[in-house]
Amino acid sequence: MTKIAVVPGSFDPITFGHLDIIKRGASVFDEIHVVVLNNSSKKSLFTVEERMALISEVTVSLPNVHVDSFSGLLVEYAKSVNAHAIVRGLRAVSDFEYEMQITSMNRVLNEKIETFFIMTNNQYSFLSSSIVKEVAKYGGNISELVPKQVEVALKMKFGFK
Known about the structure:
It is a single chain. By secondary structure, this protein is of the alpha/beta class. It has one domain: Rossmann fold, CATH 3.40.50. Helix content is 42%, strand content 19%. It has six helices and five strands. It has helices at residues 16-28, 48-58, 74-80, 93-109, 129-137, 148-157; strands at residues 4-9, 31-37, 65-70, 85-90, 114-119. It has a five-stranded parallel sheet with strand order 3-2-1-4-5, with helices on both faces. It is globular, with a radius of gyration of 15 Å. It starts with a strand and ends with a helix. Pathway: Cofactor biosynthesis; coenzyme A biosynthesis; CoA from (R)-pantothenate: step 4/5. ATP binds at residues 10-11, 18, 89-91, 99, 124-130. Substrate binds at residues 10, 42, 74, 88. Homohexamer. One of its GO terms (molecular function) is pantetheine-phosphate adenylyltransferase activity.
């Protein structure tokens, strides 16, 4: 049986922290679906298509990673690709309470889908897409926070060369 997992997120933009979780998940599961969730409550810098393109570029060396988008219930997407697992990254204890609520609701919606938490690498524990965007907006150095393709895309969005 193929072990399929879903790694959901807004990925606006993808960071080295996200990539760390994706790579580690890809080493455990046969197939990983990185799913860009279209969250209407968040104002995104990049379109869903731009985020998917960036994720595809930075995961090209991971043959078992597939990039997709979805709006709706995550457990429904997971079911549609025959996934039995959701992989979520945790940066700090503060993430846990929110993630526990989401996981509990997902269990109510579909008890056959398990959630696995991966603690992020310590060097990325402070990292979020919001912080990256804020630093990039003012021309700060983000080369150690995001892959080169993302750095270039952010500079273009904010009018830097």
